[in-house]
Design a protein that fits this description.
alpha/beta; about 375 residues; 3-stranded mixed β-sheet
Amino acid sequence: MAVTGNGAGDAGGRGPLAGLRVVELAGIGPGPFAAMLLADLGADVVRVDRPGGGALAVDPAYDLTNRGKRSVLVDLKSADGPARVLDLVERADVLVEGFRPGVAERLGVGPAECHARNPRLVYGRMTGWGQGGPLAQTAGHDIAYIAVTGALGMIGNPGEPPAVPANLVGDYAGGSLYLVIGVLAALQHARATGTGQVVDAAIVDGTAHLTAMIHGMMAAGGWQDRRGANLLDGGCPFYGTYETSDGGHMAVGALEQQFYDTFTELLGIADRAPARKDTARWGELREVVAARFKTRTREEWTAVFEGTDACVAPVLSLREAPHHPHLAARGTFTEFGGIVQPAPAPRFSATPAAVTAGPAQPGADTRSVARDWDVPALVAKEVD
């Protein structure tokens, strides 16, 4: 596992986005994660925290979504709060906010006010329902957003409630990553034309977009619109998980014929496995595979399949994952400030990124930001 040092945030880090300035209006969930990704890739991200903290009682020292950022305290509801944010916006390339539609406008830091000060600004908006539509003003969380897109209904066993995939599918895949894609695309446009724009990143839009391939398969008759009946949703006996004798699990993804042949041979069922293309016998095949996996421990089966083309891997816990030999060799996880955490991704040959600072502490960087961004009013406000 790769190890880096410890230290305070600076004016941007290493990586392909070094020199990019981002203002993040403090929020929760996908907005902070998107800003973390920008910081991971070298951007100088200044998080505008509100006095008294946010809605979630998380110790800021452990909030990894704020790593590599700097923080200033600004009360947007105070008389001069909006002006302080607009001072930062004037010197920024990007702003990220995750309020309900209309809130930033009411606070005096909406797109119109920001573009009046900085016409090149990319204004990134992160919401669940989007800036428009009948539910735009309604509260929600990841699970509701992915529910209405059809994504949640795909996950889990038939006859059981859909399985909850943490908040990875909506908040982060359908939300944060689409916001970052939109911001980077808008930056390209701004640099080419001198004109910024608003990026409306809605979790419902991004999550729906993630299901594009499935919709194509369904239109072609290759996907049934029900849970646990398809090639990639657990319905297929050679694409799923199986319990081992010690209560662990193995993940199987032997889709192609050559990989399936290797899988059944190493599992020891090649001579008695039903034909893989006979879907009517998938239940029988699943029973054979399950019974065989129950004869050995997860560690034993891992040793059997390690380094082969059977497409089988052990199902690891979050604490186990950093110690997997392949992930350790690649430095997929790193340790910084005593916290084991995922390293920045993806990787770049010419401008490698790295974790250079731990989670920003609310208000701790006011003086350095005031100096580096030439916004002396931030320090004056702090003194007051």
